[in-house]
Amino acid sequence: MSERYLENLIQEDALVDRKMAFISGPRQVGKTTLGKSLLKGSGNYYSWDQSEFKRNWIRSPLKALDGRNEGSILLDEIHKDRQWKTRLKGVYDTIGEDLSILVTGSARLDLYRKGGDSLLGRYIPYRLHPFSVAEYKKPPEPDEILLHSQKSHSWSDLLMLGGFPEPLLSGSQRKADRWSRLRLDRLAFEDTRDVKVLSDLNAFRTLLDLIPGKIGSLFSFNSLREDVGVAYATVRDWVLLSESLYYGFFIKPYSKNIKRGIRAEPKFYLFDILQIPLSEKPKRIENLTALHLMKACHYWTDAAFGLFELHFVRDKEKREVDFLICRDKKPWMLIECKSGSKEISKNLIYYSQLLKTKHNFQLCEDEAYDRTSTTQNIRVLGYQKLMSGLV
After folding, report:
1. What integer pLDDT is reported at residue 61 of this predicted model?
2. Residues 156 and 107 in one domain
């Protein structure tokens, strides 16, 4: 597996400043592998799934780490300890000045840090995403996009196999589909138990099967409620739980300065695009684009280049552009997804002039195509070319 794009950032940011590095992200995206790559040896890897370590950690976290070697330590899956934050705080406050600590696990690290946090000021959060076209060892800064290009993975392979390491590197569509199905079963029937007790796991699994059909459309909790047959509040709780488990993510509409812009209904995209049937290729393309853009937003935000947020724009006249990146709350980049059409979208022209965005892209499936309308400040190019210049 190639070096992941967060390696240098974590080494030169959190570890240098003796802050704990919290690495969150979807199940099987490579968090543990990334954490281990930052260790000097295997002796400093500790997992909650190791029975002896679990017993020692509960009795005395400091003694559980007595046998460590020189260098950073990796604590994996310790969020399964209900008192993990209190115990980790004790470790950090006692030996944190002399020890670099990496904490990896499931997405619940990200979930838990959103509330009142006794670890505040002691760690830096990082979000690990699936592989992308570029996957730079040193990703570009926001003002360096498209200045240099790198293709670690092809857009067509990612579209067929997704960006998770195991199915992508296997190169097998059949194995990728099996992997996706088994991963979703584990998320639905096992991962949920560490976060919340659900009354009907089979209904929750049904809900996860229905969500891929909503990709690209305005997301309706009420529509899902009717399909699943449970109360509105239950459906909402379950969808938010799936987001916390990194099944997918919401993007919200941007409405500031947009007359009659929609404000409420978000859209939802998946981390595992294999859940979207190949027969619905436009939805896969849009979802894969969303993944690349969200990955860039998270990296630039986590690396302290500012606050980058992914939105879409749509008004009540149904003028819509698929994606808008805001930089420090200001519109910065518009991206419209197309298949065969290379004629510039009227909606993209409209919103680029209204929002005065610095970057405006319309994407097409012709990878050799690259034209810029200087008068309208809109560049039409292939998906792979844009993604190879991002994170």
Report:
1. 95
2. no
Number of domains in the chain: 2
pLDDT band at 2 (very low <50, low <70, confident <90, very high): low
Of 332, 288, 324, which is closest to residue 306 (Cα–Cα)? 332
Q: Which of 97-111, 148-162, 291-305 has the lowest mean pLDDT?
A: 97-111
Distances (CA, A) of 258 to 86, 319, 352, 356: 46, 11, 12, 12
Position 113 pLDDT exceeds 60: no
pLDDT above 50: residue 199 = yes
My answer on whether 146 and 123 are in the same domain is: no
Crossing angle of helices 221-228 and 232-244, in 10° steps, is 110
Q: Are residues 233 and 376 in the same domain?
A: yes
- Tell whether 161 and 227 lie within a shared domain: yes
Q: Which domain holds residue 163?
A: 142-387
Question: Token match 């552009």: residue?
Answer: 321
Which parts of 150-200 fold into alpha helices (H)?
155-161, 165-170, 173-189
